[in-house]
Specification:
Order of helices and strands: EHEHEHEHEHEEHEEEHEEHEHHHH
Bound molecules: NADP nicotinamide-adenine-dinucleotide phosphate
Pfam families: Epimerase (PF01370)
Mean pLDDT: 95
CATH topology of one domain: Rossmann fold
InterPro entries: Epimerase_deHydtase (IPR001509), NAD(P)-bd_dom_sf (IPR036291), NAD(P)-dependent_oxidoreduct (IPR051783)
Radius of gyration: 19 Å
Shape: globular
CATH class of one domain: Alpha Beta
GO cellular component, one term: cytoplasm
Low-confidence stretches: none
CATH architecture of one domain: 3-Layer(aba) Sandwich
Protein name: DUF1731 domain-containing protein
Structural class: alpha/beta
Strand order of the largest sheet: 3-2-1-4-5-6-11
Keywords: Plasmid
């Protein structure tokens, strides 16, 4: 049976990818660090493999035997103030994770490796709709993931068949969209938004990210990058507007000055929030991928309905 080895399978995107890969008939082995993650992985029909991607271990033997690898693990990046020191740790840990994973793989037997990066690497590109060939201008976390992305060329030269995936602002019933939009709205609290001009973002439904990663395993071209984003960028306010409508609650904003955001979230996350992202999904669509939720108008009501049902 064809097998996939997944790192970060217990995370936000991983939770959309792993059950889908199991349902598609793959044997899915997921690297896990905790009992809680193990149980969740088993519950969706995947096989947990104990290990820490920051430390050598038996897990590397399991990774070496996989037909496909999906690398989603990232050092903790969300949930606390991101200081420069924390971002620098993120950068170093990300390099180490890649090194330990990639050094365990056999270029002759592994068929595809999906490397999940982030669009902050492309950064601010002004008002044009940009594609993967655009020269990156890393912003926010971008400068801290750039060394890992730039090192991929070395692994490619070693023969590893890497396909790069760049999801945009991933929304779903978890992560930042739950914390800053769904939860405050449901509690009838104000939704935070930064002062200043309203920016554009390229969002994408987490389930479409899971589907796109599965699609790229077979259809992605080695050494190519793919943006995973909706058909059109939207004003960032559009997301809470649609969430409030779907929840049937009024939308009220609490405007946060940039300097307060820098104090609470840190300068790096604040820079991400003040960056314009207008990205094209044309290359992904050329591979034959079809979005289930090509717009936030389609996706957000589904996220809200799903979240209310499982609460
Ligand atoms: N979420 C977004 O909006 C977004 C947007 C664009 C790109 N991305 C990229 O997509 C990838 C996945 O993002 P996500 O939001 O799903 O991340 P996430 O929810 O933060 O999950 C991170 C995952 O990495 C695992 N992990 C962390 N350190 C590990 C270690 N030392 N050993 C083994 N596993 C470890 C975690 O496992 P535990 O369960 O054990 O903690 C968890 O499964 C990341 O590379 C991120 O940069 C995310």
């Amino acid at each position: 049976m064809t097998s996939i080895f997944v790192t970060g399978g217990s995370g936000f995107i991983g939770s959309a990818f792993v059950p889908r890969a199991v349902a598609a008939g793959y044997t899915v082995r997921v690297l896990t660090r905790s009992e809680k993650s193990r149980a969740r992985i088993q519950a969706v029909g995947a096989v947990p493999v104990s290990g820490d991607v920051l430390q050598s271990g038996d897990w590397q033997g399991e990774a070496a035997q996989a037909d496909f690898v999906v690398h989603l693990a990232q050092p903790e990046a969300f949930g606390a103030r991101v200081t420069l020191k924390r971002a620098q740790n993120y950068r170093e840990q990300r390099l180490r994770m890649d090194e330990l994973l990639f050094s365990s793989l056999n270029p002759v037997t592994v068929r595809r490796i999906i490397y999940v990066a982030g669009t902050s690497y492309y950064g601010d590109q002004g008002s044009a709709l940009v594609n993967e060939a655009t020269r990156p201008n890393p912003k926010g976390f971008g400068p801290f993931i750039a060394p890992a992305i730039e090192r991929l060329s070395i692994y490619l030269e070693q023969g590893l068949p890497i396909v790069e995936a760049y999801p945009g602002w991933v929304y779903g019933a978890g992560s930042w969209f739950l914390e800053y939009n769904l939860a405050p709205l449901k509690a009838r609290k104000k939704v935070p938004r930064l002062t200043g001009p309203i920016k554009m973002a390229s969002p994408v439904h987490v389930e479409d990210v899971g589907r796109a990663l599965l699609h790229l395993l077979e259809k992605g071209t080695v050494a190519k990058r793919y943006f995973i984003v909706d058909d059109q960028p939207v004003r960032v306010n559009r997301l809470p507007e649609l969430a409030a409508q779907a929840l049937g609650v009024p939308l009220r904003f609490r405007t946060v000055p940039e300097f307060i955001s820098k104090l609470i979230l840190g300068p790096i996350v604040t820079e991400s929030l003040t960056t314009e992202f207008r990205l094209s999904n044309a290359r992904l669509k050329e591979t034959g991928f079809e979005f289930e939720f090509p717009t936030v108008e389609k996706g957000i009501p589904e996220v809200v309905a799903h979240w209310l049902k499982k609460r």
